[in-house]
Specification:
mainly alpha, 434 Repressor (Amino-terminal Domain), 3 domains, two-stranded parallel sheet, 15 helices, 2 strands, 3% strand, globular
Length: 281
């Protein structure tokens, strides 16, 4: 069986003589880290990055598995996730696992789904996330998920979030309708989801002049630290998708409150990260 992520984190932590409290401080609670190490919880990509960074390791060797549709989109758009990982489509991933295990489509499908379903997936049909996870559990393999603006098991929500980001400035009424539906269906206990929801609400309140620029700036920086606890305006790691949205809004806030030098420094740092992404892409 492949080494589970929790086992790997535990081994690296012990090798560096760190306690669970020392590794988790400022990122997640000690109890959540304990659950991750025991295989009872799965860290999201942002928590994983922060833990690896504190352990002095890179996420580069790890794979991210995405839907066939998302895989095509990533190839076309040079998404920032590509710079961190090897990205493969779920259909290819499932077929590779089945063949490595020496299983027929019928044995692989077991009581999880029909053999015909496995055949359709391997020929490019987009599978349900729960089906993929159950199949991976069945053969004793860990399942690595893709994370973008939010974390969810429903691809429909990913699509609505993408549409929301496109419409939030030019078509605010349509964006608000989308946002209400997205919020109902997201698990707000997950840091990146809470970040998306709270930062979106802050930007909406600012658009309606319900909060001051200073309040928006403080709120956005707090939201950013949900997934980037080490953030400072002059120094931060490579940002992911919602983090980029927030950083761009912070730059706008700094300009509006007459802090052009701070805005310029932050913009330059973000540009450096974008340039580094392009070199790695």
């Amino acid at each position: 069986m492949a080494l589970q992520m929790g086992d790997l984190i535990c081994q690296m932590r012990r090798k560096r003589n760190l306690t669970q409290q020392e590794l988790s401080e400022g990122i997640i609670s000690k109890s959540v880290l304990s659950r991750i190490e025991n295989g009872q919880a799965e860290p999201d990509i942002f928590v994983l990055h922060a833990l690896f960074q504190r352990l002095g390791k890179s996420l580069l060797p790890f794979e991210i598995v995405v839907s066939n549709k998302e895989y095509e989109r990533l190839l076309q758009n040079d998404d920032s996730m590509l710079m961190q990982t090897t990205v493969i489509a779920e259909s290819s991933y499932l077929k590779d696992i089945r063949e490595v295990k020496g299983l027929s489509q019928e044995r692989f499908s077991s009581d999880i789904c029909a053999r015909e379903t496995i055949s359709k997936i391997e020929h490019g049909r987009n599978p349900q996330l729960k089906t993929v996870q159950t199949l991976m559990d069945h053969v004793g393999e860990p399942y690595r998920k893709y994370y973008g603006y939010v974390v969810t098991l429903e691809y429909e929500i990913y699509e609505k979030v993408e549409l929301y980001q496109q419409k939030r400035t030019a078509y605010p009424e349509e964006a608000r309708y989308l946002f209400r539906d997205i919020r109902k269906r997201l698990d707000e206990s997950i840091p990146v989801n809470r970040q998306f929801i709270e930062s979106s609400e802050l930007m909406e309140k600012r658009r309606k002049n319900q909060i001051t620029m200073g309040e928006e700036l403080a709120g956005l920086e707090q939201c950013l630290r949900y997934t980037m606890p080490e953030y400072q305006r002059e120094s931060f790691r490579m940002p992911y998708r919602q983090e980029v949205v927030i950083l761009e809004e912070i730059i706008k806030c700094l300009k509006r409150i007459k802090k052009p030098e701070a805005a310029m420094r932050l913009a330059e740092e973000l540009e450096k990260k974008n340039n580094a992404k392009l070199k790695l892409g």
